[in-house]
Amino acid sequence: MEKSMKYEFETRCIHPANLELKQHPYGAVSIPIYQTAIFSHPGIGESRGHNYSRESNPTRAYLEEIISNLEGAVDTVACSSGMAAISLVLELFSSGDHLICSNDLYGGSTRLFTLQQNKGLKFSYVDTTNLKSFKQYIRPQTKAVFIETPSNPTMQISDLKKISALCQAHKLLLIVDNTFLSPYFQNPLLLGADIVIHSATKFLSGHNDIIAGSISTGDHKLAKRIREVSKTVGNSLSPLDCYLLIRGIKTLAIRQKSQQENALKISNWLNRHPRVSKVYYPGLIEHPGYEINRNQARGFGSMIAFSVENHFLAKKILENVQLITYAESLGGVESLITYPMIQTHGDVPAEIRAKLGITDNFLRLSVGIENIDDLLADLRQAFGDNDEI
Length: 389
Ligand SMILES: *Cc1c(COP(=O)(O)O)cnc(C)c1O
Prior knowledge:
Keywords: Pyridoxal phosphate. One of its GO terms (cellular component) is cytoplasm. This protein has helices at 9-12, 58-71, 82-90, 107-117, 131-135, 160-169, 182-185, 220-233, 239-249, 252-272, 290-296, 311-320, 350-356, 372-383, 385-388, and strands at 75-79, 98-102, 122-126, 142-148, 173-177, 195-199, 213-217, 276-280, 303-308, 325-326, 336-338, 362-366. It is an alpha/beta fold. The mean pLDDT is 94. The structure holds pyridoxal-5'-phosphate.
């Protein structure tokens, strides 16, 4: 841990903790893309450190070192997508095992859990912001808790320290999908989580140009098991994508700073808008998780969800945005707007969606690094504010 915290965060986005890893051939300043499937053996039963790229590859190892360093992990495995990372983690469990998860989750995670349910894993969807109700779901078969905080898309905040204490008391693994805040704002492993997952497609990459994922852990034994499964199931990230992710992470800190600055301004603007009925952003003091988030994270991120007066206005906004792109996904330098009900959360059961407020007037905004005045002007024209003046 000490080694990984030697430099400040901004520096750690650019340089691995082990500076010897920077000694690339010919003194190359950026890591080469080792586009090779195999590595020759120097002698019988000998290895130069890498043998076969499904198992390990120098470009991937460099990326994994950077992410471990940012998350305070002992090891990280880079996967071909966020879903590949979550699938890999589920391989740690056996038929009959029970997992407790947040009732508000990325829609793809819910879809994967349904698939796994057919094969014998059991899941309970619980309000993880409420510890009392949560405790009642723990049973002898319970093996893990899977949460997102803030959750996707309603931005609910769960108390990581309290949940981790509860998990320790009951010998449950705490798995946190840290995609929404990224390690720049939040380090769940340092708050007691056992495993941290990222859809690196989002903030870590930051440019909407690759699909990638990662699994980090602070425990050596667990790390060994995850490596073993990773090598076996073979969903590791390709060398080229590893290179692009390393490149993206270099600017993680400055992107996140600028994205959050824009998001705070936009959330305040939305909050004052007469046709917006509710804003879900943990950076607003009235957000129910504001204090907990402040205690466990270094910021609020740049994801905002909001409800407008009716579905006509929601559709009008989606059809009229010009600078902001109507597209799924999040976390990149480009601002995106989504309609969770029919896109990211289309597969979430309707009654759960309704309970959470993911209805036909609910929109999700991923705020990018464009100029704030341009973003606000685009929102104003998409809402039709200018027409009414
Ligand atoms: C996008 C996303 C995922 C899935 O990641 P992919 O890289 O798209 O496979 C998982 N969790 C969260 C919170 C996400 O936003």
